[in-house]
User: What shape does this take?
Amino acid sequence: MNIVLKLTLIVLVMFFAAGCGEEVDPNEPVGFIQVKGSDTIVNAAQKTAEEFMKEYPHIFVAVTGGGSGVGIASLINKTCDVATASREMKPKEIELAEKRGVFPKEFTVAHDGVAVIVNKDNPVDKLTIEDLHKIFTGKAANWKEFGGKDLPIVTLSREVSSGTHIYFKEEVVRLGKKDSPEEFSPQTLLLTSSQTIVEEVAANEAAIGYLGMGYVSERTKPLLLALVTAERAVAGKGSEFYPPDVNNVIKKTYPLSRPLYFYTNGEPQGVTKLFIDFTLSPKGQQQFIETGFVPIETERRGKRDDGRGGMDEGREKRDERTLNAQKD
Amino acid sequence: MPRKISEYVIESFIRLSGLLVIIFVFLIFLFLLRDSLSLFGAYRVGEFLFGRNWLPISEPPKFGIVPLLLGSIYVTVGAIVICVPMGVAAAMFIAEVAPKSLKHILKSLVEILASIPSVVLGFIGIVWLSPFLKHTFALPTGMCGLTGSLLLAFMALPTIISISEDALVGVPRTYKEAAFGLGATRWQALWRIVLPCASSGIIAGVMLGIGRVIGETMVVMMVTGNSPVVPVSILQPLRTLTATIAGEMGETVSGSEHYFALFAVGLVLFIITFIINFIADSCLRRARK
Assistant: This one.
């Protein structure tokens, strides 16, 4: 009943705003969706929203960035409909959300590699995760140690509100150990957006930074990464260097790959449901491909090719449920 | 009769507006205090004020404000050192030396300078000033305190120039005439007589400029690198109080420890600007006497 009332109000407002003349088909969905969160996803989400608005001209989708933390916080504070995140919600955040009557529901919308970029004049072009760990914790301070020029390393990071920051901290700074006390070295520059990182790396020969694969451009050089050095490889695995590209993310050979998420408050309804369904549809996924991400479909197929199917059964089931709900 | 009524209405409206300002300031202060105090239930005041680590999202988090406070102080002091001599000199030129036609042009240009949005300055800082400083001083990175100081100095200049200029113009003509009568040169009269007489007003202008500098957010967030390190030199990246609030407020869940910590940072900032404005105000009052 409440929703009907809300919808009627929205329709009324839209009607008056449109200048009292335009006829809106009463069967057509009308509304407003606020999408907020990850800077990594913001371009893809914006493109998806634009396509979505072409299909549903009477739904307005507003997409803003700020960082995964921003999106999740505003989902908990009930100021957005869809939170985009490049990391999973922390248990603490879920607990806080539930305390406030928000029940986050997670959708994996794409996969992404975190690229590590350096200046084009930097002779170093491959590093292991352990090297990165040393660089970003401040244990290694000069490019000489990695076969580069005699220059002090300038490490660039995103602000703490970034999901990529948290992912990088867990995987590289803490090497995947949950209870590790390691932190980014305090000398690390915390920059406010992925674009500023690109600017600084492009201008500074000694800089190294990380960002979502979609931001890699001609102006900087992405490094090839390996999990470990050849001596420490287990059964010859993990010591090959791979560039951050779609193929290596699908095959999981690139060591820094991660899923990207959308979160809604409870089972999405009304226009929000339409938007989520659109994002997961081939047309929505196409927008993610065009902005440099790996769509979930290919990723799943890739896994099957590897003979490791079924790992994502939970999500498949969920998708099926969504499909059934659609039929209803 | 109706005249009396209308006067009464207008009078009470004006009184209400005046009182509202006081109430707003007081409420803001109370609001900041309330949320900051919530932090100190769980986190020790001493650790907050004297802690040397700002690690808000670690487990357990550390909210040591020292690097941020020093960052703000470094950037502000740097900006003052740059902008006060320039600002006062410019004010002296406009008030006493410049011919009338030039005076008008300069005054309006100063006003235009004041209206440049801070984001634009920050952008100039990123693409032009920071690479320039990096090459000039052979720094590892151009995103450092000095970049912020230079841009902030630029932002504080209009405030300092216009208030100082007003103070200089306000010095009675007779003082200067008396100095000339005793055989002083133009420079001697300006330096020994006019400037000291206007000093209270100039100090007030400088203080207001400082208030502007320490509270400025966008520029410092864009160009100072935001490393929460206890700064040694101004040529190092550093993080200010304002940039911390702006950079982190968006991701905190209201009611969390981090959220309250940012309010506590806001309270510290509020107290600092309050003191600075208070000094500026008392200087201005002395100047008027």
